[in-house]
Protein 1
Amino acid sequence: MSEKEQALVVYDYSGEDSVYETLYPDGTRVTLADGDVDYIGIYGYYMYYGTYLGDGQALEVYKTRLDGMGGGATELLATVYTTEEAASYGYISAGDAIFSEEGLYLSYGVYAGTGIFFSDGGVSLIDYNGGSRTLVHADSEQELTFATIYLQETENADGTTEQTLYYQSGDSYSYVGLWNDDWVTQGVYALDLDSGESTASTFTLSGIGDVVFDNGSVCVLLDESGVYTEIISTAQAQALGYSGIGTEDSEYNSGSNTVYIADLNIIDGYAYFTVAEILADSSLNVGWRQGYRCVSMRRYMTEIGSGEFTLLNEY
């Protein structure tokens, strides 16, 4: 691998605008994008990002080469929209991104209010060479109210593949914010990408690698199969001293978990995660927001399926 291929993408927000750059080992910096940049992701040799237009109703989606080849050209791929009403109380933002062979599945909407709640969202499939197709319209009855989307791929016996896109809509599950839950179980819909038909679903919606609590156990989606893998069983959580993981603590009436997974990373069949224990503290409340203080943070490692856990550090 050449030195030019060994580089980092760095983000700088020291001034008024965002700046994304490629940083090479010799100290050379190449600007990829700057200004009001909404980072979407990296796929292949390209970084994808968005910038909102004027009144905030439209988001232009771009790609630019990470290595500066091709004259360093930036290409406009598509423009996606939220509703005019939504733009009156917030700017459109990129939500979730799934890079697939077919293109970029992108959710978008408005994060608004003091709770930074997501609403008036849509989903588009954006071609890597330009152009897009709207799959869920922001001005429809099934507008997105949760940014996360999930693409399930099921292989049939004849070798063909069925693709289903899951998303959430409606007010059956409220207060889903930028800072809040990683999954939803209500108001989930399944969109058949072949027929275009959308139907209500009982699927628990989360993204690949997101933590999901299920009756005291911890599960995660590892791929596009739609099958959840158990990382910590209920019995194992109890053995580790976390019998209340993923459940509400009524004693403190906190309205959220007091024992939860703060972060989780899956690497080569191993899960690395941090268990956080927090305690509701009304003296730390900010307006309607519940305040907490940290009780403990413990970092573990486990080979998925082994049932054995190693405590790496704690404080």
Protein 2
Amino acid sequence: MKKIICLILCMMMISGCSSHKNDSTFFLPIQDNEYSLYNQDGEDLTSKKYIDYKENHLKGYVVTYKDNQVGYIDYNGKELIKPGVHQYFQINDQMVIGSQQEIKNELKEGAIYNSEGKKLYQLSDSTVLRVSELPILNHQNQWQVLYQDGEDLYKGNEEVFSSMVLGNAYILFFKDYINVYYDNQITKIEMNGDFSLSDSNDDEAILFDKKNKNAIYIHLKDKKYTIYRNIEADCLELSHGNILLKKDDTISILSKTVQSFIMLNSYYKDINHYIVRNSIYGPHNIINQSKNYKLEDLEVEPVATYISGEIYPVYKKDKGYEYYDFSAKKVIDHTYYQASLFDKNNIAIVSDKENKYYLINNKGETINDETYFDIKYIGSSYYAVYNEDGMFGIIDDQGEEKLPIEYTGIEEKCLYEYQDKQYLLLDKNGSGYLYDTSDFDVIFSKEGHVRFNEKGYISVDEYRFYTLDGEVIH
């Protein structure tokens, strides 16, 4: 079987990377190893069926036909590059590279196309492609880098070794320096090495040269950067506005402006607010900007733990849990049997006795009068509240009941965003229920394993498909 090699160049985020979503069309399986292209109205857009596909952002798809030939179609199914012209494809930014040879290292055969299938360059001995996240062309030692849909990012006689795509920013690596290209600005970083992307999000990126122990933090919005040298780490991560350095079983936090880091072993908010844990009941050191406080006869979290607000739970021996701030002051005049961290809504889950949970705000005020066997935060402003039989309902961050306690199943990811709306998917006795959270009306329900796809359709038991209006696709 002929292969598709398609390196989708993603717009990167924490945890990982994500690409632009195509909200107009999607592929669905119609039988084993065979797919067809549909839109949100459930229309089958092509008469041809495919055995493989890769998406080019909002533009189109590289597809493998049933005879194993490979081509490129737009997102409505129109053929832009006929099957059989090339054996291998790779997507770079919004462009498409096709070749009869495997696309790696340097390539002298094939062509570069824009997203509409228009040929931009024919590769040859005099126009050689260096494979990277952006097409790097060597025209007999004159260098050219393309971006977006075939526009010129760089032309010159200095060799370009590699490239990166970071949202709306682009990075080119030269021999002795790095250029970061923004919409209307180029930032030059006097640094070389073998850098790879360690982590990124919409606003920031961290590059890491593990071999040479160097790192570069780049703020993509402010267009500023910080260089770190002699960094001993397994990886660097961006998390909650912080840079975390992970090495073996340790976690440290890096400053974003100077070469400085702090090893973490308990609660932290940022590099200026954290607790240094000492033994079980302290005394622990609280760092609050330039001030240092002592926390005594209290147990704090024994591992690096991020807190989003200013207060955190501690355990008072033989008493229970209390909430303190970074000035070592008790801020809520109550001792709890159990107490959680405050979430992004400034809500915590607490109890005064076993299996009697309720919600409080960061002033210690009770949000809901009723107590529950258990409560779990599920995301956004919603909480699952359980009875002793394991059934649950949904309340919001004001304590208002949105759905009664009658549901039996919930996945870790149960909230979805699509076209400026939010949806909640729950299970009740073997049937799936999809709710619009603006009014908690049921928009879809069916017996079976119901799943919401973020391209705007619903699957049931992985082989039945429906539009959001409940119309059968197939």
Protein 3
Amino acid sequence: MDKKLRTVVWLLYAALLQVILFCTTKALSPTFWITYIFIWVACLSVLFVKRMSIEQEKYLRISFIVLEVIYLLIQIPIGVVFSLGANVISYKTAILVNVLILVVFWILMAGSLYGSSHIQNVEGRQENHQTKL
């Protein structure tokens, strides 16, 4: 996908999320706003992941963008549930669940970055030690 098309798709996706969140909410309580912020963190992290270099793209055959999509697929339904139950669900529960999901995502990303760089280092050493026939 070229850069302009990717940007348009991302903007349409962000707009759709806004419509879904504001249409499903019962009240604009602190629980709703906490969930809203964490969904935006998930959306903006897509932009961060896309800027990573191609060499670091895969570790154990899982690309960073796949990890990001999984994070979004988990975060959005949880956001809708918290949006629907904004009057009933405590803001502490919203913070706890959203931070837990975000930390797990960061751990997976950091592990993937470390594993990818380690694999590149090993491959670089192997290339230096091989002789050509």
Protein 4
Amino acid sequence: MVFKKLILLCAVLTLSTAVHARPYPDKVGVCYEFKGDTPSKMDTCIISITDGAGGTSTTLRLLNKRYDIEGIETANSVDRYGYKYTVNGVSAKSYYRNASFYDIADPEVLFENDEPALYCFKTSSLDLCHN
């Protein structure tokens, strides 16, 4: 009887503390590096996204480069959705661009008008976007 209670207790503790992250299938997309409002590089890339339990992770793989973008949910974030971002460990700001004209855009306006968006992250030395 004690053994059954111990097994049940272990199962409850395991289930209640499990982190529920959701990986999405990898997809082929287009990655951009910007200098100002002009794309300086554009190439095909593999986009891997996982999110859940207070964070999000995106990996962009293109040619010989890999960019790891981490978002941590936090109450004192400058991001409109409550995340602090890093790109390869360097603090980054997230923003959106219109995929047709590359101008910086309000995401609500883009999605409301069903415009294609680029998801962007800017550090002091890198301005990186993907579709």
